[in-house]
Design a protein that fits this description.
Oligomer: single chain
Strand content: under 5%
Radius of gyration: 20 Å
Number of domains: 1
Number of helices: 7
Shape: elongated
Largest sheet: none
Length: about 220
């Protein structure tokens, strides 16, 4: 075989070996960043979306840090989606691929939208604190951001977990028990996402579990698998 063809074949066969590791690293980065952002928000902003915004004067800096982490987490999540789709390759089922990609992009869009509304609220408060705090405009922005996050984003995350779990079973990229756990937690998010504001932590925690398993499994010597 000519050297050029050998090099090309090596590149093509070597690329899939790196895909699970890339997905795992992106998933871990996304999980850590999103959990950090959610924890900062939950510790700073009251659960009641109709509160009058007293936290704007005391915890605005902590909320701003959380909002700056969200876009970086979103980029990592987008990378996570891309490398998992690359893992499927020619075995990609059109139905599950459409739901997987669609739910992932919808999740990102709504996450960014909720964060953007919260960020705009912080900027408006810094420009005119007295006029915004406790106003109808603040209440509208607060309820809108809350509704997007806990009425829609949480449920779309559950759909993404279902399709990702199916892909994990289909490709063997992760253990079946992680996929089955994903199904159970997805049902919790879809039907019980509004039980508590901490419920949304289930999603990044599951992605972290799945990504850690993929990374550890990929780093093990072939003889041990």
């Amino acid at each position: 075989m000519p050297p050029g063809m050998m090099t090309q074949e090596k590149a093509l066969t070597g690329a899939p070996l790196k895909t699970p590791r890339a997905a795992a690293i992106a998933g871990i980065l996304f999980s850590v960043l999103l959990m950090t952002a959610l924890a900062l928000l939950r510790l700073s902003v009251p659960d009641n979306p109709l509160e009058r915004g007293m936290w704007l004067g005391t915890d605005a800096n902590r909320v701003a840090i959380a909002l700056h982490l969200v876009p970086v987490a979103g980029i990592a999540f987008l990378w996570f989606i891309g490398v998992l789709r690359a893992r499927l390759g020619d075995r990609e089922d059109r139905f599950f691929a459409t739901v997987f990609l669609g739910s992932g992009l919808l999740f990102l869009a709504m996450l960014f939208m909720a964060a953007a509304i919260a960020g705009a609220t912080l900027m408006a408060y810094s420009a005119n604190a007295e006029a915004l705090s406790g106003s109808v405009t603040f209440t509208l922005a607060r309820v809108l951001s809350y509704s997007i996050m806990y009425s829609y984003t949480v449920k779309v995350a559950g759909v993404f977990m279902i399709t990702t779990s199916t892909i994990a079973i289909y490709t063997g990229i992760a253990a079946r028990w992680i996929a089955y756990l994903g199904y159970a937690l997805a049902v919790l998010l879809i039907f019980g996402g509004g039980l508590t504001n901490w419920t949304f932590m289930v999603f990044p925690l599951w992605v972290l579990l799945m990504s850690s398993y993929i990374l550890i499994d990929n780093l093990r010597p072939a003889a041990d698998k």
